[in-house]
Amino acid sequence: MRALAARLAGSPRITVVTGAGVSAASGVPTFRGAGGLWKSHRPEELATPEAFDRDPLLVWEWYAWRRELVAKARPNRAHEVLAAWSRRYPEFRLVTQNVDGLHERAGTQNVTRFHGSLRTLACHRRCAGSSPDGWEHEGPLSELPPRCPHCGGIARPGVVWFGEPIPAEALRAAAQAVNCDVFLTVGTSAVVYPAAGLLLEAAARGAFTVEINPDATPATRGVDLALAGPAEEVLDRVERTLPGE
User: Fold this and answer.
1) Which sequence spans correspond to the domains of the chain?
2) Which of 77-91, 128-142, 148-162, 221-235 has the lowest mean pLDDT?
3) Any idea which residues carry the catalytic annotation?
4) Which fold is adopted by the domain 2-241?
C-alpha cells in the first residue's frame, strides 16, 4: 500500500484501466461472477452481432434490464477515489471497459470508454442520417427493440460486442495512455484483449504496474505490485495513505 502511495507522490503520469469489479459494490453484476447468468443465458452469448441478428428482442430485453439496473446504481468509493485522482493529478487518464457510466457520474475526468456506453443507441443499419457514434438516450425505452429516429430501422445498443473492433479513437487514446509512470489495472479479469494488453505495453515502457483485484488473474505474477481485495476497499486505503490526504 505504502509502495503505491510513494509512487503516486509528486503528481506522476497515472493511467488506470478498470473493469466490472469496480462497479460490483454499486450493485452492477460482473460478466464472470457467480451471478453471471441472465434468464439462463450467458452474457457472452448475448453480447454479439450474431445474437442480435438472430433475436434482437431477446438481446434488447437483456440490455433494457441492464439499463434499468445501472440507472438505480450509484458510484461507490472506488469511483470516488479515481474521480478525485483525475482532478488532483494533471496527467491522469482512465480507460474503462465498463459501459455503465459510473465513472463519469462520479466526476472522473479524462475517461476513455473502450466498450461504449449503455446510454447510447446506434442505428443497426448505420443509415446515412445517423451519427456513427449513435445518440444518447436517458430513461426507459418506449419500445423494444427501439427504432432509429432517422430511418425507422432497428436501433442497437451503442456498445462494443464480442467480435467487434474497439473504436479507433479509443484505441488512439489508450495507445497514448500507456506512456505513464504508474499503471493500475483495477477490477478486471485481465483476459479480454486488447484492454488486457495495455498492462504489458505500459510495463515495456517502464511504468510501475499495479493490479487491484479480489482474486489472482493471469496478470498477477507479472505486475510490480498486486493488492488483493475489492476495488472500493483497496483504493480507499491507498487514498488514506497518500501524504497530505
Assistant:
1) 2-241
2) 128-142
3) 115
4) Rossmann fold (3.40.50)
